[in-house]
Amino acid sequence: MKTVKVLGTGCANCKTTLKLIEEAAKSKGLEVQLDKVEDIAAIMSYGVMSTPGVVGDCKMVLQQMLEAMGSRVDGARYAAWRKKLADGDAAKRAAGGPPPAKDGEPIHPLQLCEEVKDFMQRDAIRVVDGQEILNYGRHSMPTFAPGHRLNSGPFGTMGVGLPFGLGAKVAKPDAQVIVVHGDGETLWTLTHARDFAPGFVGLMGNPAAIGETFHITSDFVYTWNQIHRMIADGLGVEAKLVHVPSEVIANVLPPRGPGLLGDKAHCLLFDNTKLKRLVPDFAPRIPFQEGVRMSVAWYEAHPEKKVSDQAIEAEVETVLKGWRAMMERV
């Protein structure tokens, strides 16, 4: 006898699902034991977040689907498409990843994922959070069990990796839980005022610009890691980067949340083609590292302006203190 469980709190859809299963089993001459699961904790233990849900014999369900499709699906019709996908996958796998990073060099996100995969247990709970690392993780770090792969989703909030990982460990303390965080490699565009000015002046008074929308940005692109290291280099100091999840900062400093969890959570690149059609001479020439040096030189020439922003200093210390305390509890 087959056992089928219907997960639901007793709503109309749950009752309808139960009735449909009974009718289907009767029409097939199958003897089925139907169990109703209405306890919320028991329902969630199956990884079901919306009801009704059905737990049954997978092979039997697939057989029923094949019988229902009958001759409507012709395997030969999709043979060329399947071959194209298989050939493309084989080519990518044969190409391999980037060369291994040497000591002291930044590791490529794909290499990181591959090395994590080597010690990841088959039933490990994998949590991936970030931008590029999330994309590489989808392709190179497989998951073999339902409910064992957690991320922010296609439109979710970045910074959820650590909270998700802690929750997974609390729920399943005996399971291997691996959290792969974003590594500061989100791409960003920074524009020097002297590069911005020619684009802005070129649009002013241009009849073709009336009623149109433009952005004026540099063509130089950097990661956040590079940005902070360039600032440190310009100041003649070593950057000591501490990667704190954006969601943690947002919880510690709520006013900072919208900016970090909004546009700064994604790569931000711009195409200046439209601007250059109207202003052909627009060509950014000042990279960020040069702009930093120019700013430092200006402050050196105006020592009265070298005043520390105590509010920002306090915010940074607050975040670091909260992050270290959280790490000590893990």
Description:
The chain has helices at residues 12-28, 40-44, 58-69, 79-95, 109-119, 132-140, 161-171, 193-203, 224-235, 246-252, 257-261, 273-278, 288-301, 310-329, and strands spanning 2-7, 32-37, 53-55, 125-129, 149-151, 177-181, 187-189, 221-223. Helix 5 (109-119) crosses helix 6 (132-140) and helix 9 packs parallel to helix 13 (288-301). It is mainly alpha-helical and 330 residues long. Helix content is 48%, strand content 10%. The chain has a 3-stranded mixed β-sheet. A 3-stranded parallel β-sheet has the order 5-4-6, with helices on both faces. Helix 1 (12-28) links the parallel strand 1 and strand 2 (32-37). Among the domains are: 2-72, Glutaredoxin (3-Layer(aba) Sandwich), CATH 3.40.30; 187-329, no CATH class. The protein starts with a strand and ends with a helix. The chain has 14 helices and 8 strands.
